Each structure stands twice: as C-alpha cells, then as structure tokens.
Amino acid sequence: MDSKSVHITLRTWIVMAALAVTGQIAWAVENSWFNTFVYDTITPDPRLVAWMVAASAITATPTTLIMGTLSDRTRSRWRRLFSLPTEVSEKAFQSKCLSYIV
C-alpha cells in the first residue's frame, strides 16, 4: 500500500449508511409481505416460508457480488455519474474498513 490517504467526507459516510439501511428495510418489508402471501395463499407450513427466505438470501448474495463487480468494471455513463473512481473506492475501503478488522 502506498502512503497516500484517501479521505471520505462525513456526507459520503452518511449517504452510504442511509442507502444500506434503506436496502435492509426494503428487503425486510419484501420478505414480510411475501412470507404473508406464501403463508396465506400456498401453505401455512412455516418450513416453506423459511426455505423461501433462505433461498432469497442465498440468491441475493452472489447476485450482489456479481453485479457490483460488473458495475465496477464497466465504464458506463451511470458509473461515471454516480460512483467514485475504482482506485479511490478501493483505497478508501482498504484504509477505512480493513483498519477496523486488523
């Protein structure tokens, strides 16, 4: 790692946290509505609902990783408008997030 430090502003951290919380709320609401639908319409067996939630989480994890990698590696107009350059985001991740782990 080089000695240059990348500074992420407080506003950026707040936006990232707000987006993360929004995504978690959306996923929870989606699962609760779909769980209710499955329970009321298909079967009242809670095992099916549990399998559905597990399948959703297992599918969402690789999809998120694959699409995130794809969007980071493409040079589309949307990426240039709404994201940091890859080098900056990687350095910020390494300097901020990984320092908490070590």
**Major sheet:** none
Please give the radius of gyration in angstroms: 19 Å
Helix content: over 70%
Average pLDDT works out at: 76
Number of contiguous helices: 4
Provide the low-confidence segments as ranges: none
SSE pattern: HHHH
Number of strands: 0
- What is the total domain count? 1
Overall outline: elongated
Class by alpha and beta content: mainly alpha
Classify the beta-strand content into a percent band: under 5%
How many angstroms does the end-to-end distance come to? Answer: 15 Å
Summarize, please.
With 102 residues, this protein is an all-alpha fold. The protein is built from 4 helices and no strands.
Can you tell me about this structure?
The protein is mostly helical and 102 residues long. The protein has one domain (10-101). The protein is built from four helices and no strands. The protein has helices at residues 10-42, 46-73, 77-82, 86-101. The radius of gyration is 19 Å and the shape is elongated. The protein starts with 9 loop residues before the first helix and ends with a helix. The model has no long low-confidence stretch (mean pLDDT 76).
Lay out the secondary structure.
Blueprint: H1 10-42, H2 46-73, H3 77-82, H4 86-101
